[in-house]
Amino acid sequence: MKSAFPFPIGLRNGLIMGVVSIFIALIGMLQAFSARALAGNVTLTNIIIILLGVLTGYFAIRKMEGSTSIGQRILAGLTAGVVNGAMLAILMLIISTVDLRDILVNATPELVNILMFGQNFYVYESAIILVVLFGILGLVAVLLELLPGRLRRAILWGLAIVALFGLFWEVLTGLALTRLLLDWIGWQLGRTLSWTAAIVIFVISGLITYFRPNIDQTLGGRYHRMPVAGQTSLRWIGFGLLTLALLVLPAAVGQFWSQTLTTIGLFALMGLGLNIVVGLAGLLDLGYVAFYAIGAYTMALLTSPASSMASNGNPAMSFWIALPISLIVAAFSGILLGIPVLRLRGDYLAIVTLGFGEIIRVLALSDLLKPWIGGPQGILETPAPQLFDLSLKDPRLLYYLLLAACLLGVFVSIRLNFSRIGRAWIAMREDEDVAQAMGINLVAAKLMAFSIGAALAGIGGAIFASRQGAIFPSDFTLFISINVLCLIIIGGIGSIPGTIVGALFLVGLPEVLREVDEFRILAYGFGLVIMMIVKPEGLLPSARRRMELHEHEAGGMAGTPTPISEVGGKA
């Protein structure tokens, strides 16, 4: 049972978050982000410090019982914030008096200056200000929790949208389409988001969020009252606008961001495949990168003039002939993996598939296969795809190939999701024993999931090999599998749109935030923890997943049996 005593709860959470805050400060994250301005003079480092204070109070009041008074919640949030601020203040005082750079390289005067917010205060005055500030931020978390739900969501979404605009401001103002539009209307925008623009964005996004239920109800009611022909026409118009936007995107963003879009497309394609294996079938596969590598090596072997097959007198194949062969080889590899793990579940399945992925990487590095696939030297001179006389080496052209592959993956995923085999996968994911008792062939269902997921990864690997021009075993590490798994968790397990959104966040955002590259693994872990606490179903969850995780909010608890009197109408 949760404790209702505010001071011990606040003290415990303040100490925990204080350790987290000190860790973030000492790994150099605050210094790395201090040069990235979001709006006016507010930097990303300032936002991180504010978030640490607010989250400290938020986690403290989450530990309080629902029956506790407002005063107890205020005391818990205030205590947690003050303790966190006091720990950071002690760190600042120690660094300012003792040189710790021999053992802690990031314990520098720059860190002290950041914790003093760049002001010319005395260190002791700054320490008191830091404690007071974190206490206020703990109270802010309490006040947000006391606000009505719609108003709280409007404020938080408004702030989040402003932060996103600040992060992407330089990118948005640097796009070719944006520059043409600004030149046409005669506007001049600065390199950072101005305070006026930030306030306007906050107000507009907050109002849209606040009135969204009313807007959805009004527009949804009008949509459902329309005849079927009208609804179909609206859907086709929306599909046409989306298609047009996707087609003109490379011309609007330029060559550099087209290259980034191709990377996002590769991970989205792999995410769609792993979403079938993990999201639908419930088979936790940590060796998914193996199929990506198999597709890439198959493409390189068949198309590169420097490969072992070409050196043996075999003519190099065209990309379009080698692509379906790579797909088939990867799908067959998925079946080979599935056969020995048919009886495994959960953690045991994850460990075995992880081993399979490492076996493929070690074999690619080994002297045993070096005469065929080059060992550590890899395979060079893999040609870019050729369409008639047009080379797709330019990322603005290769983008369309990946777009077609992703659309194929989306089409296959949608058709499978609502098919007989899709329903069998979902039943198998929930309970294999019950699914088998209902007549589902578990062997066929598992092998089908592994092969289809591997086929999509094989397509991605084949396109990757042609894009890179050379592949090496170091391109196919375990971290690729972890990335793909993270993007489907953050986007929403089992959700096709969520997979695309997850790829945008985990692959596209680090390209915008070059500073985060050094802390990518930490950022992934932090994002996953926050996602599990705040939105466990993901950013864009599937309807089924949302119902499973929020069934208790609709009046029942997951797993609660239905009374016999409600089955068939009579007991």
Commentary on this structure:
Helix content is 71%, strand content 2%. It has helices at residues 6-26, 29-33, 44-62, 70-97, 109-115, 123-146, 149-174, 176-185, 195-210, 212-225, 228-280, 289-303, 308-311, 319-338, 346-365, 370-373, 395-417, 420-430, 432-437, 442-468, 478-491, 496-512, 520-534, 543-549; strands at residues 37-39, 42-43, 386-387, 390-391. The strands form 2 sheets. It has a two-stranded antiparallel ribbon. A hairpin with a 2-residue loop joins strand 1 (37-39) and strand 2. Helix 11 (228-280) packs across helix 22 and helix 14 runs antiparallel to helix 20. Mean pLDDT is 83; it is low at 552-571.
Percent range for β-strand residues: under 5%
What kind of sheet is the major sheet? 2 strands, antiparallel
What helical percentage do the residues reach? over 70%
Average pLDDT, rounded to a whole number, is 83
Q: Please report the total strand number as a whole number.
A: 4
| Helix and strand run | HHEEHHHHHHHHHHHHHHEEHHHHHHHH
Which word captures the global form?
Answer: globular
Low-confidence stretches: 552-571
- Please give the radius of gyration in angstroms: 27 Å
Distance between the termini: 36 Å
The tally of helices reads 24
Question: How are the strands of the largest sheet arranged?
Answer: 1-2
- The structural class is mainly alpha
